[in-house]
Design goal:
mainly alpha; 0% strand; single chain
Length: 179
């Protein structure tokens, strides 16, 4: 996130940048996964099945559970790859564009970014309710943190820009009255 030259960044600004960057990484992973699923769904399913077979060779119950989950996901990918690929692509690209606007501090895009993040949050929440998963809870939790930080940053930027605009108007009126 850009700051004034030489100005130290606050803890909030650092946390905000890291959380938004993680959201961007999430968007990048979704975009790449969507592209791979769109181009090579059978290869993706085969890769997941091979990974499941490798995990199943272990003796721990955790590895066995992971192997069953991955095998089930791999089998379902081949038949339902196109809708999932399109969802991941749209979701990922929207996240990347939103993160770009947020890291550039393009204040006019913040309301749109908040609206998009809230819609994506609701989609993930519905998906989590219909198919509960630990990873889904982690992503929903990250979404809550991101939405909260973006809303705080938006308000902070509005106050900061409002104060600088008021100061600039005051300086202009002083010059006009002095002239």
């Amino acid at each position: 996130m850009p700051t004034r030259a030489g100005a130290p960044r606050s803890l909030f600004e650092r946390v905000y940048s890291v959380v938004v960057a993680v959201k961007g990484l999430d968007g990048l992973v979704e975009t790449v996964a969507g592209l791979i699923l769109l181009v090579a769904p059978r290869l993706t399913g085969s890769t997941l099945e091979a990974l499941a077979a490798e995990l199943a060779e272990g003796t721990s119950p955790l590895r066995d559970a992971a192997a069953r989950s991955i095998a089930a996901a791999g089998g379902g990918l081949v038949t339902g790859a196109a809708p999932l690929a399109l969802f991941l692509l749209v979701h990922g690209v929207v996240k990347l564009l939103t993160v770009y606007a947020l890291l550039r501090r393009a204040i006019r895009w913040y309301p749109w970014a908040l609206a998009v993040l809230c819609v994506l949050f609701l989609v993930q929440l519905v998906d989590l309710i219909t198919a509960p998963a630990i990873g889904g809870w982690v992503l929903v939790g990250l979404d809550v943190v991101v939405i909260t930080l973006v809303a705080w940053e938006y308000e902070r930027l509005r106050r900061e820009r409002g104060a600088s605009t008021a100061g600039a108007r005051g300086r202009r009126s002083e010059r006009v009255s002095a002239g």
